[in-house]
Design brief:
The complex is a heterodimer. By secondary structure, chain A is mainly α. Chain A has ten helices and no strands. Helix content of chain B is 58%, strand content 10%. The longest helix of chain B has 21 residues. Chain B is globular and about 50 Å long. Chain B starts with a helix and ends with a helix. The chains are: A mainly alpha, B alpha/beta. At the A-B interface, α5, α6 and α10 of A face α1, α3, α7 and α8 of B.
């Protein structure tokens, strides 16, 4: 799947309401802590994130929930797709495996379900299901393309 | 004629080798030989900082190294100030900052320096500025222009929120607002969505756009 197809698909998503964004922001810190705890309990964690990357994972969880909150408050499909490509490239360069997101995203949903109302959760889950269903596409794109933030460097010979 | 691409590479290589003094010496020697400070900013420091960001992203350098390079560049920028022939008294003022969660302030610092070089009175508030703090500052200082920067896309809604707050507070007295940073370069349409009057891609184009948004005659109106 190419980037334009991902843009078109992201553009077709039905966006969560303002209330969902506020709740996502409000619960971001606690959700990050709970997600980190859940992931720490996984016996295969080192295989998912690489040796010594627990602190990087913790930071990612914090940034993840804050980012999702900001995404739904001002939704831009183009930035969304470019940012996820950047996330995949950056964290994979650190040693994270693609399977990390296959495990992390469903766990993030479970954590959110504990804190959001049924209506808010139903809205937020649209984003998560789209991300989960496109993990392979992002994995491939993150291998085949440099991210926007890398392309901006005129000193890069590549 | 100075090959600024080569100068940028030498500057970067010295920083990555933790040779800050050597990095500074090579740039200062060129400036003392006549290379404009504005060219140093645009053709050396900006490309180097983008490359430092890229090297961190691909895990070729770690966070401490990235911070070292950034801090060194901020120090060099301070040393370059006496070498600029500032234009005085444009009569215009601006406030510049990075809001909320935005940590990446070097680009906005460059923008504010360029405005200073052009004779603007500048008020640089740096990174992670609270939105209410920006509103209070703008109400008190009454600048002609507010410049807001976001490197990561998470900063864009924070900018919109601040612009909405400024609009509610100031109404017709709202100053012109310009946005910039990589989040807006990624999708320039976002500048309209946040309610800005303009978007600039770098420090030099920011001052050019500002001259259109806030002509000198406006300052004395």
């Amino acid at each position: 799947m190419d980037k334009q197809t991902l843009f078109d698909s992201a553009e077709a998503l039905i966006l969560p309401s303002g209330n969902t964004s506020e709740s996502l922001e409000m619960y971001a810190d606690i959700c990050a802590k709970e997600l980190t705890a859940v992931m720490h309990d996984r016996s295969e964690l080192q295989n998912l994130i690489g040796e010594g990357n627990e602190h990087v994972m913790e930071i990612n969880h914090h940034n993840h929930f804050k980012y999702i909150a900001s995404l739904v408050s001002l939704y831009d499909p183009k930035s969304f797709v470019e940012t996820v490509i950047w996330v995949f490239r950056t964290y994979r360069a650190q040693g994270f495996q693609v399977d990390y997101w296959r495990v992390m995203l469903p766990q993030a949903k479970r954590v959110l379900k504990k804190h959001l109302t049924d209506g808010e959760y139903a809205e937020a889950v649209i984003i998560y299901d789209w991300l989960f269903n496109n993990i392979s596409a992002f994995a491939t794109l993150s291998e085949e393309e440099t991210s926007f933030y890398e392309k901006i460097s005129p000193m890069h010979e590549g | 004629m100075v090959d600024t691409a080569e100068l940028a590479r030498t500057y970067l290589d010295n920083l990555l080798a933790a040779q800050r003094h050597a990095a500074f010496e090579v740039v200062m020697a060129r400036v003392e030989s006549g290379l404009p400070v504005t060219s140093v900013y645009m053709e050396v420091l900006q490309p180097v900082m983008y490359e430092v960001g890229r090297l961190w992203q691909v895990n070729e350098i770690d966070v401490p190294t990235e911070h070292y390079c950034t801090a060194a560049t901020q120090l060099l920028m301070a040393r370059l100030f006496p070498y600029v022939l500032e234009r005085k008294g444009s009569g215009r003022s601006m406030v510049g900052c990075c809001l909320g969660s935005e940590l990446h302030e070097l680009g906005m610092r460059m923008v504010c320096d360029f405005f200073e070089f052009e004779g603007w009175d500048t008020y640089f508030m740096g990174a992670i500025t609270p939105g209410p703090g920006l509103v209070k500052t703008v109400v008190e200082r009454k600048p002609h222009l507010v410049c807001l920067s976001a490197t990561m896309s998470r900063g864009v809604p924070q900018i919109k929120e601040a612009i909405d707050a400024l609009r509610r507070e100031l109404g017709d007295a709202l100053p012109k607002i310009m946005v910039g940073g990589l989040a807006f370069l990624m999708n320039p349409d976002l500048s309209h969505r946040v309610g800005a009057d303009g978007m600039a891609s770098d420090a030099r184009s920011a001052t050019r756009m500002a001259s259109e948004l806030v002509p000198v005659s406006t300052a004395y109106a």
